[in-house]
Specification:
alpha/beta; Rossmann fold; seven-stranded mixed β-sheet; 7 helices; 26% helix; globular
Length: 235
């Protein structure tokens, strides 16, 4: 049975890396002593080993070991043998391009759909949807396709921001950008605010955290969705 946590972010203001969600991860990965981390998104240009070390220190707090996929000579075997998978944030275009290059996109999809627990933050959450077309990232590289895992039948916009009434910023808001997307696409988009996540068990999707999410559907007004809402109707 498919089991995922899809989080907007790895870090919230005033907390350490993954600190806010560690209790949830302890339950999510219950009985699992080691997980596979995929550092391909490389935030701020971190090396794979540097990024993996950050993740290791966080998961040590809940007694879970972390191995980076770069440690293995065969990435496909690493995924097939994983007991749990975490893909972190960074640049979504770079992440997806590398997953295609390493030929592990369908391999990860297969093991997760057969029950291996998955955790994603930011870029690692973007790729759980049908496509990465609602990422906030710059297209610094070009993946062969925008198609992603499709674990959920909608797209995620992580780090969703509301317009600030006193801001002097004159550019487009996130809502404007998503409306532009819906001029050409029909895929629903869920704007996840910082500190929010989705708990997915097969086709059941529940919004978790303390904040509302914002749901965008083509030809409909945007909706504010409160915590604990069942979003399974989008599946």
């Amino acid at each position: 049975m498919k089991k995922l946590i899809i989080a907007s972010t790895s870090t919230i203001h005033g907390k350490g890396y993954l600190e806010y969600i560690l209790p949830e991860l302890s339950t999510h990965f219950k009985g699992i002593h080691e997980i596979l981390f995929i550092p391909y998104a490389r935030p701020s240009g971190l090396t794979f080993d540097e990024y993996t070390d950050v993740v290791k220190r966080a998961f040590e707090k809940i007694n879970i070991r972390v191995s980076g996929i770069q440690q293995y000579t065969n990435a496909i075997d690493a995924v097939n043998n994983a007991k749990g998978i975490f893909i972190g944030g960074g640049n979504t275009f770079l992440l997806l391009k590398t997953l295609y290059e390493q030929k592990i996109l369908p391999v990860i999809k297969n093991v997760v759909e057969n029950g291996i627990p998955y955790f994603g933050t930011s870029a690692g959450s973007n790729i759980t949807g049908l496509t990465i077309k609602n990422t906030n990232d710059m297209p610094i590289v070009y993946p062969p396709s925008f198609n992603a895992f499709g674990f959920i039948n909608f797209n995620i916009n992580p780090h969703y921001l509301d317009p600030e009434p006193d801001s002097k910023h004159m550019g487009e808001t996130r809502e404007t950008r998503i409306k532009e997307f819906h001029y050409y696409n029909t895929t629903p988009v869920l704007g996840l605010r910082e500190g929010s996540w989705l708990q997915v068990n097969e086709n059941q999707v529940i919004l978790k955290g303390n904040l509302h999410a914002r749901l965008f559907q083509v030809n409909k007004s945007a909706l504010e969705v409160p915590p604990e809402t069942n979003l399974s109707f989008l599946m």
